[in-house]
Amino acid sequence: ISKKIREVIMAVEIPSDVVEAVTHYLSRFGNEYAYAVRSSATAEDLPYASFAGQQDTYLNIIGEEAILQHVRK
């Protein structure tokens, strides 16, 4: 079932405000550099809701399309 959930998420369009934020920061810091794409959650480090190590981190991602593809993951 988790594979199906991931497929559904990958098919969803990234919200325009997220695309705009990524594009803005890439234009500011440079589209040609390698970046890390990782999860972030408001409850990520709470003592009763620890999710450490359960999300993926993608390293050395270069270019707007590649970054947005990994954001979707």
TrEMBL record:
It holds the Pfam family PPDK_N. Residues 2-73 form the Pyruvate phosphate dikinase AMP/ATP-binding domain. Keywords: ATP-binding, Kinase, Magnesium, Metal-binding, Nucleotide-binding, Transferase. InterPro entries: ATP_grasp_subdomain_1, PEP_synth, PPDK_AMP/ATP-bd. GO terms for molecular function: ATP binding; metal ion binding; pyruvate, water dikinase activity. It comes from the Bacteria. It catalyses: pyruvate + ATP + H2O = phosphoenolpyruvate + AMP + phosphate + 2 H(+). It is an enzyme of class 2 (transferase). Its EC number is 2.7.9.2. Its cofactor is Mg(2+). Pathway: Carbohydrate biosynthesis; gluconeogenesis. Catalyzes the phosphorylation of pyruvate to phosphoenolpyruvate. Belongs to the PEP-utilizing enzyme family. This is Phosphoenolpyruvate synthase. It comes from Bacillus cereus.
